[in-house]
Every structure is written in structure tokens, then in C-alpha cells.
Request: fold
Amino acid sequence: MSRPPLSVADLRQLLAARFPEKMGKPGGVVPTGVRAVDEALGGGLPAGRLTELVAAVPGSGGQSVLRRLLLSTRAARQRIALVDAADAFAPETVPPDALQHLVWVRCAGLDQTLAVADLLVRDGNYAAVIVDLCGCAERALRRTPATVWHRLHRAAQAGGAVLVKTPHPLVPAVTWRLVLATGHPLAARRLTPDAIADNLTVEIERGHAGVALERAG
Reply:
């Protein structure tokens, strides 16, 4: 007999029991291990902020960034959470040891993904929370109210870094938006994941939240 799926409340209780200590700390950065990304961001993902990673097509490098981030945070003995909207993560592409610090939540639809992301960001147990929205219907993504993103941005301010992976520019509340250059899937298949990560081309844009911070300063 199959076990019913966990509710958001069930997940909250599970996390509280498994991770009683608080990992998230405002300030600082979480290195991704991808040189182009870390150099663009001044060392890594900013803690307490949203960063958007736009990976428009398969082969553009989004999975390579995720793989390096898992390796980097594992080496630093930091916990990380992945909220997977469309079951896009392939754990077999990552060394098993790099998965030991990962909480991977496979969601059923966009609404559940955003609810779980809000919960995990507020939980404060993670150096970084990745929200992978690639594979979601474009119409549903574009209909997401801006208030959802601003709520997530406010939640992030008390904890770790939040990386939202999207198929096109979407999130209005980000400090930084990283756009991966359009990939070449056939060519990428001939490269190792590390080679792809080392040769990524990243364009960086200042998001609305970053502009507001700059004006406030």
C-alpha cells in the first residue's frame, strides 16, 4: 500500500525533527564552484537574497551549475535544499557523496513548488535553497503574482541564499539575474559536466531588489 504524499505541515514537522539547529546566517556568500558565476557575483550567491538563474534551453549549463553547487556546499559541509517542480534533477550525474547533505523535494505542480520553497527558505536550516522551475508551463509561470516573489524575497532576508532557476526572465524581486548563454545540446553531449561548467558564459543583470538596495545605500 503506497504512502500518501506529505503535506506542507508534515514537511515542516519532519524538518524540525531532522534539523533542529539553524544553519542560515544573513550576510556573506555561498560559492557555487562555477568560476563565471562566482566572479560575476563577487564570490558566490548572496546569502539572504534571491538570485535568478535563467537557463533557456537544455544544454545551456543550468544542471552543471547545480552539480557544482552541490559539490561546493558538500566540501564546505553545508546543507542545501532543492525544490524540483518538474522532476528535472538527475541524481546519477552527481557523485553519491555530494548528495548526503541535500534535501530534494519533488513537487507536483507550480503551486506546491512555491509553497514548499517558502517553507524551506523560512526554515533557516540551509546555506542555500534552489527552486528549479524549468519544465513548468510558461503560461503558469507568467501568471505567478509578483507578491509571491516579494514574499519569498522577504523570507530570504533572515537566512541563506536562494537560487531560482527559470527558463526565461521571470522573478521581479531578485538582486541579481544570471543569464546563461544559449547552449548547443549536441556539442554539450561531447563535454564532461566539469568542462561545461568551466566554459559557461554568463550575462549578469541587476534586478529590482538590487537597484533598490543600491539607492538605499
Summary: The radius of gyration is 16 Å. Residues 22-216 form a domain with the Rossmann fold fold (CATH 3.40.50.300).
